[in-house]
Design a protein that fits this description.
mainly alpha; 15 helices
Length: 288
Amino acid sequence: MDLDISVTLISGQESARVALKTMESGFYDYAWKSDLVSARDAAAILGVTVQTIKNYIHSGRLETHRTPGGRHRIRWEDISRLGGLEEEPSRNDMYQGYIDTLRAFTSALDARDGNQSGHSKRVMEIVISLTEIVGIAGKEQEIMKVAALLHDLGKIMISEHILSKPGKLTDQERYLVQQHPELGEVIVSGVRFLQDTKPLIRHHHERFDGKGYPDGISGQEIPLGARMISLAGAFDCLTHDCTYNSKICNEDAVSEIERCAGTQFDPEIARIFLENRDQVVQGISGVT
């Protein structure tokens, strides 16, 4: 019986020589592992559900290829053709898409918290400025940046009635609000690319003198990024209206940072902030 079966070879070797040898040996096609994505990733790229991808496969609009490990994968080329995409989105493009989504989410969270719009983004921009001043770059800077953006994420688990309550909180309400760093840590624990942000989110309300929360750690025990977020968050709250205080001018806020250096804030970070405050404040002007 003469069967006409098309067979594609999947290889981990990105080699033109291997590809040519494959075709000469009678294989229908050749693909590198890096050319292949899962149905879930294909759905995210095309903006459809995984079930839609499965429907495309069953109808013949998409073809799957079996890897040596027995997994079924889809080629970028086929996804691009189906979605009208000109080229494979890079990892950076996909990561930036995640960050843009998180920005939108935290903007909604800020509004729920009673903060003036843009609190989380301004805190992030202050932290970015501080990292640039001290020479932190690359992955370490990115971790601090994302943690700053998500530092109040745990507040989504707290009643809006409490978050937006004008005036003094009861002891019980204050206790619940003070759970948000731990709740934020729990939330990001379920996201693989956010794992390194966990200690920064958990400890952004610690104080340099050890009188903060949730763990009461002090000094250098507090992660550097968390110490930066602590100062950045306080400065933004001082200079913008929110539920529990009215804003003060930048100079008064700077005086407050100076007064609390060594107790609430890391004195070295406070010094860097104070010496470069014009540059830092310029970085958050117009952020909403």
